[in-house]
Amino acid sequence: MSWGTKIALTYIIFVVITLGIVLFAMTKDVDLVTENYYEKELVYQNQIDKMNRANSLSEKITVKKNESSLSFIFPKDFDYYSVEGEIHFYRPDNSKRDVFFPIQLDSSYQQIVYTDKFDKGMWKLNIDWSVKNTTYYNEFRVMID
């Protein structure tokens, strides 16, 4: 085999590998963090304000992990029946697995969410809630086993 043939063969192998990588990358499904990313970015200051209000409360939301459930314990600064909002279980690797729960506290200021049917792994919890037209926002990360 002459040196010219070896150079041509090396070039052909390089082109085939490059095309293979490009085709592989094009077939991968890429999930965005959110569908309306730019619109949500414009109103992010509202989110920061909600987080600051939640952090300024004398008592914070706590999340307790049990064997097959998560307990959300809300501050007792308010009447439990006046708390409204939503708990969003966000799966970073696949947004199709996201789950939403309306906030429905019992008289002990608690809400229990059963996680036995959830996929195992890391979940981000976004709690967007309000009391009498004052909005709050909390984020947590939890590992479901």
How are the SSEs placed, and which strands pair?
Blueprint: H1 3-27, H2 37-42, H3 44-55, E1 62-65, E2 69-73, E3 83-90, E4 99-102, E5 110-114, E6 121-131, E7 134-144
Antiparallel strand pairs: 1-2, 2-5, 3-4, 3-6, 6-7
Description:
A hairpin with a 3-residue loop joins strand 1 and strand 2. This protein has three helices and seven strands. With 145 residues, it is α+β, with helices and mostly antiparallel strands. The mean pLDDT is 90. The strands form two sheets. The chain has a four-stranded antiparallel beta sheet. It is elongated, with a radius of gyration of 24 Å. It folds into two domains: 1-28; 43-144, Immunoglobulin-like (Sandwich), CATH 2.60.40.
What structural keywords apply?
30% helix, Immunoglobulin-like, 2 domains, alpha+beta, 145 residues, 3 helices, 3-stranded antiparallel β-sheet, 4-stranded antiparallel β-sheet, 7 strands
Give the helix proportion (percent range). Answer: 25-40%
Q: Which H/E pattern describes the elements?
A: HHHEEEEEEE
Main sheet characteristics: 4 strands, antiparallel
How many structural domains does the protein architecture include?
A: 2
Proportion of beta-strand residues: 25-35%
Number of strands: 7
The CATH architecture of the largest domain can be named as: Sandwich
Strand order of the largest sheet: 4-3-6-7
The general outline is elongated
Q: Flag low-confidence runs.
A: none
As for the CATH topology of the largest domain, it is: Immunoglobulin-like
Rg is: 24 Å
Q: Pairing-aware structural class of the strands and helices? A: alpha+beta
Estimate the mean pLDDT confidence: 90
So, the CATH homologous superfamily of the largest domain? Immunoglobulins
